[in-house]
Sequence to fold (155 residues):
Amino acid sequence: MRYRGRKGIPTVNVLAVCDFNLQFTYVLTGWEGSAHDARILGSTMNNPRLQFPMPPLGNSLHFSSIFSSLIYDIHFSNIFNLHLGKYYLADKGYPDRRGILTPYSKIRYHQSEFRGAVPRGYKEIFNRSHSSLRSCIERAFGVLKARWKILPAMP
Fold:
């Protein structure tokens, strides 16, 4: 029963990290599909045997509303003139932890929500950029599924 997801079908959770070349740099499988992303990440980061690669950080700046995931070299030179280091870009299912950047809650996020509209304020600018950059992980899985046709068809 642990491996049955909310729709009743067997599922396995995959924690994956990729770079901008769509190359997977870290993959962890085996967690039941019902396990929450935050639980998987926390357990992985706290277990040295799993060798989770933490991104090197620049300044020890902590965001208040700060992976599937991705390292992005944050450099907002045109906006804030700061170099903050490298972070994993993660979706809202991941916790607010050092080295992890999640989007602002209750603020427009998906690219389709910005069609024909200009982002208003720094939170929308951040979320729009976050969404655009995080699409690399979605594309990486799309390439993987296209190459191995059995993956999307598995029960």
User: Anything to note?
Assistant: The chain is about 25% helix and 20% strand. Residues 59-83 have pLDDT under 50 and may be disordered. The longest strand covers residues 24-32.
